[in-house]
Amino acid sequence: MTESRPDKYMGQALKRKEDPRFITGTGQYTDDFVLPGTLHAAMVRSPYAHARITNIDRSSVDGMPGVVAVLTGEDVQAAGIGPIPVGWLLPDLKVPAHHAVAQGEVNHVGDIVAVVVAETRAQAEDAAALLAVDYEALSSVALGSAALAEGAPQVHDDVPGNVAFQWEIGDEAALNEAFNRAHKTVKVQLRNHRLIPNAIEPRASLAQFSPASREYLLYTTSQNPHIHRLILAAFVMGIPEHKLRVISPDVGGGFGSKIFQYQEEVIVLLAAQKLGKPVKWTARRSESFVSDMQGRDHESVAELAVDDQGKMLGLRVNTVANLGAYLTLFAPAVPTYLYGTLLNGVYKFPAVHARVTGVVTNTVPVDAYRGAGRPEATYLIERTVDVMAHELGMDPAEFRRINFIQPDEFPYQTPVALVYDSGNYEPALDKALEMMHYQELRAEQERMKGTGKILGIGLISYLEACGLAPSALVGQLGAQAGQWESSLVRVHPTGKVELYTGSHSHGQGHETAFPQIAADELQIPIEDIDLIHGDTGRMPYGWGTYGSRSAAVGGSALKMALGKITAKAKKIAAHLLEASEEDVEHEGGVFRVKGAPSQSKTFFDVALMAHLAHNLPEGMEPGLEATAFYDPKNFVYPFGTHIAVVEIDTDTGVVRLRGYGCVDDCGPLINPLIAEGQVHGGIAQGAGQALWEEAAYDEDGNLLAGTFMEYAVPRADDLPHFQTDHTVTPSPHNPLGVKGIGEAGTIASTAAVANAVMDALWHECRIKHLDMPYTSEKVWRAIREARGGMGQAADD
Amino acid sequence: MYPANFDYQKASSVAEALAVMAANPDVKVIAGGHSLLPAMKLRLAQPPALLDVWGIEELKGIRREGDWFVVGAMTTHADVLRSELPLFPEVAYEVGDPMVRNRGTIGGSLAHADPSADYPAAALALGAEFVIRGPEGERTVPAGEMFLGMFESAVQPGELLTHVRIPATVQASAYEKFKHPASHYAIVGVAVIRDANGQIRAAYTGAGEKAERLHRLEERLNSGQPVGTGLVESATLLGDRFASPEYRAHLVDVLAERAAARV
Fold first, then answer.
1. pTM of the predicted model, to two decimals?
2. What integer pLDDT is reported at residue A796 of this predicted model?
3. How far, in Å, CA of A218 to CA of A225, rounded?
4. Who among B180, B244, B254 is closest to A651 (CB)?
5. In angstroms, what CA-CA distances link A195 with A192, A202, A363, A685, A686?
6. Residue A747 confidence class, pLDDT cut points 50, 70, 90
7. For residues A564 and A566, what is the distance between their CA atoms, to the nearest angstrom?
8. B242 with A775: Cβ contact below 8 A
C-alpha cells in the first residue's frame, strides 16, 4: 500500500479531488437539499432607495394559491429577533439598526420589506409580486462624497451627517515634515468604483425547527458556518449556540460575499419556527445584484513625495469609503485595518498618513470582496507610484526597485502599524520583467507609435497581509471575533483518516490540499484521507475562510493536530516494537527501529491497536484522535510583481488585454495547480474591475447595472494567456511556512491593468490619470480631448 | 420558476399556429425564446399564453430557389452559421454563444426587431425579403419596410413570419460589430455588401431605434469617393452608460470604413 505513495505530497500539482463531483453535477448545494414539507419564502424588496413604509396590505394576497404566511418587520420585532450586529467596532462607530425585515423605513433598493411564504416557490413569487405596499419616498443619496455634502439627504437619523466613522493612521506631523522637504510631489484623485461579487451559486438558505428538541438546523451558503452560528444564536435569535446547527455544504463561490450574516438567514429560521415546517429561500440572480454585499467604492486623494534621488518620502491619503445603507459584519474593518495599514506597500516610506471617512448611503451595503481593502490600497499606491514615475521620467520598474524594502531589513516595521515578517521583492520584479521581455515591450511601444494602436505596459509590485489573524491583536483593533483556527484529526481503526477543519472550501480545493499536508505528516496514501468541513455539528469550532487564511491558519492548525497524532502513534509503535521511543523513527511510511529496519509497524498496525487497546503502553488512553487550535503570531505577507500588456485602438478607444504575467510569492506551494487556478481566477476578477465591471448607481440610488446584460464580467475570450511563476520566501512564523494565494491575483491585477492603460495613454498623449473602468468611450474621449489640447497628434 | 403563470401550447403547422392566434389574440409566439424568456423571468413580459412554433417542420431549413435562398424562420443561428448564405454566416457567428445559437432562430430574431440585433443590418444590406402569413394569406415585405421601430417589425398581430428570402449571389460582403461589453449585443454593427452588379449596399444596426441603410456610404463608395465621416443620417440615436449617441455615430463611421475595406 505504501509503495505507490510519493515521497512528498506537498508541492505536487494533484488534480482536485472535489472536481469530479462538481463537473458531473453531483455536488450538493444548499438548494439541492430537500426536507419533507418544505415551504418556500419569497422576498418583497424595496423599489425605492429611501422610503417610509406607510402600509403593507396583507389582504392583497389573501386567498392566493398556496400562500401560508406574510411576515413583516412587525412580526420580526414581536418575535424578539434582534438586529444583525456588526463584527468589528471602531471608536465612536455609529451603527444603524439592520433588521431582518425593514421596520418602517427602507434604505436601499432591494431592502426587504416583507416576506411571503407559500407551498411552492412559484406561488411565493407570484404573491410577493402582488403584495400591496405603500411607500412615501424620501430623498436619497448614492455617492459617498455626495452624502458628506452640506444639506445631503440623511440616510439614518442616528448617523449624523451620514458619517459612520472617522479613522486615521500614521504620524501626520512626520508626514507633513516629509512633504516640506520633498523634491517633488504628485497628487492624484482616484475613484475605486463599486463592484458586485457575482458568485456563480446564488445565496440560499433552508431552515428547519424541531419543536421536540427546540433545535434549529440551517443549511446556508456560508464561507464560515461557525460565525453564522455564533451571530445567529447569540445575537439575533437569542438561543444557545448548541441549539443551532449550521451546515454550509458545497458552496459555489463566495469572494467574500458569503462571509456575512444576511437578513434572509434570520427570516427562514424565524419562519420555520413560527410555521412548524422547513422553509427555503434561494436568490434569483436579480436579487443577488441588489442584496449580496458589494465591494470597494472608495473616493480618494493620494499625494506622494520623493526626494531628488527619487526616493519616496511620504504618502498622504484621504479616503471616503461608501459603506452603503447598513454596516455589515466586517464593513468597518475593510476600509481601515485592511486598507490603511497596507498603504506602505513594498516601499521604504519614512512616513505614511491616511484618513478614512466611512459614509452611509442609500445603496447596497459594502463589505469584504476578494482582497477586501488590500486591492484598494494596492491600486492607490501603485497608480500613484506610476504617476510619479511618469512625471519624473523614470522607468516605473526602476523607480520601484530603488524604493523597495531590502531583504536584510525584515522584520520591517512600517509607519502604519504592520510588521512585515519576511520579503524579498527584487527577485520577483526581475523574474517578471524577464518573463514578459519588458525591454522588448518598451521598444515595441515606441515602434507602434503612429499605427493607430498604442501599447501600454502596466507594472505593479504588491504586498498583502493575509492569514487573518492574531486574535489578541485584532481584538485590540475592534474585532468581536477570534481569528485562530481549529482542526481535528480522527484516525479510524482501519487507518483511514478524517480531517476536520473550521476552514471552509467554496472553490479553494481544501479537500485536496489539506489531505496533501496530512499525507506527508502521517506518511500514508492520500486516498486514505478525507477532509470534513462546513458543518458545525461535525466540527465544533472555527472561523471560516476569507482573507486568504485557510492554508496559513487552518493548515497550521491541521499540522499541529497531526503532530499530536504522530507523537501518540510513535509511542504505540515503540511499545509494539518493544523499543524505546527515541529509537523509533517514522520514515518511508512505517515506524521502525533505528538500525533494525526489518522491525517495523505500519500506520495501520498502530491505528488498529490504538482502537483495539489490547496492547497499549501503560496508562495510555485508547483511540487515536487529536484536536489543535492555532492562533497565528502575525499576519503573513505575500508579495509579487504583475505585468499587464494592453493594446488600445485609438479609433474606438477599445482596450484589449494582450498579455499578462505574474510572479507571486506565497511561500511554499501546497498544490501548485490549485495555486495557479487561484491566481488565474484572481487576475480575471481584478482585470474585470479595471476594464469592464461597475456597479453603477444613478444619483438617487437606483442600480443601473442590475443584470448581466448591463454588468460586464470578463469572459474567456476577453482574457489573454496568463504566464505565472513564483518565488518562494517562507513565512518564518507558521509551521508550514505558507502564506496565501486566494486574493493575490485580484489585489494585483486591477492595478496592473489600470497602470497598463494609463501607461499607454501617458506615452501617447500625456494623460496623467483616468478612473476605472476603462470603457471604450471614456478612453476614446480622453484621447480625443488630449489630442485636441496638444494640437495634431503624431499619428494623425 | 420565476415568470408569472402562463398557458403553453405547441403548434405543428403554420395553419395551426394561425388558427390559435386567431382564436386568442393575447397569445405570444415563442421561437427560440432567447429574448422572450429573459423578459418573462424578470416579469417585464407577462404574456397569458405562449404559442411555441419551434417544432413546425415547414419553417426549418434553407433551400435555393433560383437567385434566392429561402430560409425557414425556425432555422437556428447555428444552422445559419454553417450555411452557404451570403454574409449571414459571418453575422450569425457574432450572435451570442454556441448555446444561444443552437436555440435562437433567424425568424424569431428578425420578427422581434431588437434595435441591437445583428441580423437586421445584414438583411437591409443584402435586400432580403420577408414572407409573412396571416389570416388574409401571404405577403412579402422588402427589408426596407420590415423594421419599423424599437421592437416593432412589419409582422402584425395574428401573423407569422414564415421565411426570409436572401439574394443568393453577392460579390463580397462584410460585417463589423462593436459589442456591448456586458450583453454582447451590437452597440453598433455595420454590414457592407457588393452585390452581383458590383454595387455597394450597406446598413447599420445598434446605433438607433431601428436598423437603417447607410445611403451616404453607398453613394460615396458607388461614386468612387472615400468612406469619410458623418455617415449616420438619423437624428435619434440611442445612448447609455457604455455608448453615447455621439460615440455610436462615430463607431458607425469607423466600422463602415473597416467593413468597406473588406468588400
1. 0.97
2. 34
3. 9
4. B254
5. 9, 16, 12, 10, 10
6. very high
7. 6
8. yes
- Residues of chain A that touch chain B, judged by Cβ-Cβ distance less than 8 Å: 121-122, 125-126, 129, 284, 286, 651-652, 654, 692, 696, 704-705, 707-713, 775-777, 780-781
Check CB contact under 8 Å for B182 and A692: yes
Look up residue A595 and give its DSSP letter: T
CATH pick for B171-260 out of 3.10.20.740, 1.20.272.10, 3.30.390.50, 3.40.50.300 = 3.30.390.50
Give A362-397 pLDDT, tens digit per residue.
Answer: 999 999 999 999 999 999 999 999 999 999 999 999
What is the C-alpha separation between B245 and B187, in angstroms, rounded? 10
Cell 418583497 sits on residue = A44
Nearest to B182 among A129, A708, A780 (CB): A708
Averaged pLDDT score across all residues of chain A: 96
- pLDDT tops 80 at residue A462: yes
- Specify the length of chain B in residues: 263
Nearest to A696 among B38, B41, B241 (CB): B241
Question: How does pLDDT run across A257-295, given as a tens digit for each residue?
Answer: 999 999 999 999 999 999 999 999 999 999 999 999 999
Q: How far apart are CA A265 and CA A232, in angstroms?
A: 8
Determine which of B247, B248, B252 to mutate to test the interface with A (most A C-beta atoms within 10 Å). B247
ipTM score: 0.96
Using a pLDDT cut of 90, give the percent of chain B over it.
Answer: 97
CATH T-level fold of B57-167:
3.30.465
Cβ–Cβ < 8 Å for A220, A535: no
How confident is the model over B182-204, as pLDDT tens digits? 999 999 999 999 999 999 999 99
With a pLDDT cut of 70, the percent of chain A lying above it is 98
> Does A703 score more than 70 pLDDT?
yes
Minimum distance, in Å, between the CA of residue B72 and any CA atom of chain A: 29
Domain ranges of chain B: 7-52, 57-167, 171-260
In this structure, the strands spanning A51-57 and A105-106 are antiparallel
Cα–Cα distance for residue pair A694/A196, rounded to 1 Å: 8
Q: Cβ distance A283 to A45 under 8 Å? A: no
Cross-strand bridge partners of residue A659? A645
Q: Tell me what pLDDT residue A664 has.
A: 98
pLDDT above 60 for A582 = yes
CA nearest neighbour of A708 among A108, A289, A252 = A289
Question: What is the pLDDT averaged over residues A663-684?
Answer: 98
At residue A793, the pLDDT reads 38
Which residues of chain A have a CB within 8 Å of the CB of B45? Answer: none
Which range among A274-278, A429-433, B27-31, B231-235 shows the weakest confidence by mean pLDDT?
B231-235
Grid cell digits, residue A728: 518562494
| CB environment A522-551: b (16+ within 10 A), e (fewer) | bbbbbebbbbebbbbeebebbbbbbbbbbb
Shortest distance, CA A155 to any CA of chain B (angstroms): 26
Rounded CA-CA distance A637/A631 in Å is: 16
pLDDT, tens digit, for every residue of A307-325? 999 999 999 999 999 999 9
Contacts of A776 in chain B (CB under 8 A): 178, 181, 242-243, 247
CB atoms within 10 A of CB A151: 6
* CATH of the domain spanning B7-52: 3.30.43.10
Gap between the Cα atoms of B248 and B189, Å rounded: 10
Q: Kindly list the structural domains of chain A, giving each domain's residue range(s) and its CATH number in brackets, ordered by start.
A: 19-26+484-630 (3.30.365.10), 33-138+200-253+258-291 (3.90.1170.50), 295-468+634-790 (3.30.365.10)
Strand order in the sheet with A639-649: A453-463, A639-649, A655-665, A722-726
Gap between the Cα atoms of B56 and B12, Å rounded: 5
